[in-house]
Amino acid sequence: MAVQETRTERRIDLRMTPKDLINIGVFGALYLVMVYAITMLGFINPAVMLVSLVASIVAGAIPFMLFLTRVRHAGMVTIFAIVTSGILALTGHPPISFAITIVCALAAEAMLLAGGYRSSRMSVLAYAVYSAWYVGPMMPIFYARDDYFSSPAMRQMGPDYTAQMEAVLSPAVLIAFDVSTVVFGLLGGLLGLRLLRKHFRRAGLA
Amino acid sequence: MSLTLGTGSVESAPPTAVRTRRTVRLDPRTKILLVLSSSFVVMAPGGQPFVPAAVVLGVLLALTERAWARALGLPLAASGVAAVAYLLPVALPHPAVGIVAVAAAFALRFVAVGGVALHLVHTTRPTELTAALRAARVPRAITVSGAVMLRFLPAIVAEARAVRDAMRLRGIGGWSGLLRHPLRSIEHFAVPLIASTLRVAEDLSASALLRGLGAATRPTTMRPPRFGAADAAAVLVVAVLAAVTLLSGAVR
After folding, report:
1. Upper half-sphere CA count for residue B158 (Cβ side, 13 Å)
2. Which of A56, B16, B171, B183 could form a disulfide with A38 if both were Cys (CB 3.0 to 4.6 A apart)?
3. How many domains, in total, are found in chain A?
4. Which residue range forms the structural domain that includes residue A114?
């Protein structure tokens, strides 16, 4: 009974051991490289741009799920989010993207806490929630569209054209985009879990 | 690969000392502030008019570090993207072109902020960045994990290149492979990359822990960040650029 109590206490403990911080750094770097390498594949050929965006959500799940096997208490996913999206903010991502990532991380923390940091089902859900941050870098297209449509060049285009374009950039499209990132995050989480069992657990890395 | 982990506390002689001899050196905190403030202004709703100011700032920063190619390429790239965003739809009024133009208008902001960010990336070593963040009173949990991440990024990029080459040798790499077997090619890329990185990470973290990474005491820095005349000049330049943009009437 006493053992059980100390264990629950440790879960909401925010203190990080150096080992925790190293894990956050290593998996943060792996996550960034996975996401970046696969997104960059899309810039070589515009036809695969959307496929590579989806693929990067799925691929990011593999290091993330492996990271979650080493998370034992609250706060680690949040620091992971601060460090990875912080470096993206320093390379030019919009500040709102940072804020969105932190919110996603806090939601993921709640999922993990509910699963007692051991439930693989909750880890999959946590990654799905976390990957909703993908909408962050896209946000300026949506919230700053008036800038574009009120520019002198666009005023020449006539109301029909502008109305068409405004429809493409509607909030419904934004919500659809965000929902699909969560769905692909779910798929990615499941793939990550499968690979965890197939490769990493056997190799003693999970 | 050398098994060292710079924690920001110990710094060897800078390898770029010869190249940066006669250039202006800004405090890393100033560079971070420049990136964040230009990102904050340019990415905000109504931030489009500040794009030229951010491009000028990026060019000036490139000139201070004598990156001539970037000083020339940045305005060229920005005007090219701006032409696609604003002139192409006028020439070809079609919805498909319109979507490309909207994407270009969005990319223009990234180019403008990216120019400023490239200066930070090219002139700041990870150890300096960590020392600057520590000087800016960022919590230890973030500076330590950030330092580890910055230390690992180049190692992982090298591993990723090796994995990609190995995949190409077996004819399973590239974007065509990604299209045909998306899940399988992700697996082929990710599993060897992660496995080899974690093997390196074991050694590196053992070595870093031995040398006091994450210790409660505050590490001393060989070259502590100091604000100087260059930083005052940078603030002045930013103030002038902001004033010119505001007075030009471009901001409604």
Report:
1. 9
2. A56
3. 1
4. 2-200
| CB spacing of B86 vs A93 below 8 angstroms | no
CB A65 within 8 A of CB A101: no
Helix (H) or strand (E) holding B198: helix B182-210
Of B106, B132, B99, B107, residue with least CA distance to B31: B132
Residue among B59, B57, B60, B37 nearest B47 (CA): B37
The answer to whether B26 and B63 have CB atoms below 8 angstroms apart is: no
Domain assignment of residue A206, yes or no: no
Are B107 and B88 in contact, with CB atoms under 8 Å apart?
no
- Determine the distance in angstroms separating the CA of B245 from the nearest CA of chain A, rounded to an integer: 15
Q: Tokens in use for B48?
A: 């489009």
d(CA B243, CA B247): 6
Calpha distance B81→B88 (Å, rounded): 10
Q: Using an 8 Å CB-CB cutoff, list chain B residues near A37.
A: 160, 164, 189
ipTM reported for the complex, 2 dp = 0.85
Place of tokens 């505001």: B246
Q: What distance, in Å, lies between the first and last C-alpha atoms of chain A?
A: 28
Amino acid making up residue B34: L
Q: What are phi and psi of B7, to 5 degrees?
A: -100, 5
* CA dist., res. A27 & res. A80, Å (int): 8
Question: Would you call A25 and B152 a contact, using CB atoms and an 8 Å cutoff?
Answer: yes
| 8 Å CB contact of A66 and B194 | yes
What is the tens place of the pLDDT at every residue in B157-203?
A: 999 899 888 888 887 766 677 777 878 888 888 899 999 999 888 88
- Among A residues 114-133, those touching chain B with beta carbons less than 8 Å apart: none
The span from the CA of B24 to the CA of B20, in Å, is: 8
Write out pLDDT tens, residues A140-155.
888 877 777 777 777 7
Global confidence as pTM = 0.86
